[in-house]
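Protein modeling request. Please complete all fields; requests missing the sequence field cannot be processed.
Requester role: graduate student
Desired output: 3D structure, token encoding
Chains: 1
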Amino acid sequence: MNVKYSTIACIILASGVGRRFGANKLLTAIDGAPMLQHILDISQGLFPKRIVVTRHTKVAEICAQQQIPCLLHDKPYLSDTVHLGTSYIQQ
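Delivered output (91 residues):
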């Protein structure tokens, strides 16, 4: 079976509630910037399509400021987050 992959996309799952960590770890500062910013910086230019999927308005605001596509949702499960990101990428 020959399968050709024309693109590889990146779905950044940013919906965790941080119960064990005690806060939203993606907003925790590392070297003066939120962890999310480091993820966005590292993934920039590596993928033709990126999407951040989150339930946190602050994460969505950071993405909007940088014109990075973001889906804000209120779904309960990790599988919901993956499904939303996959649906966006396949458009």
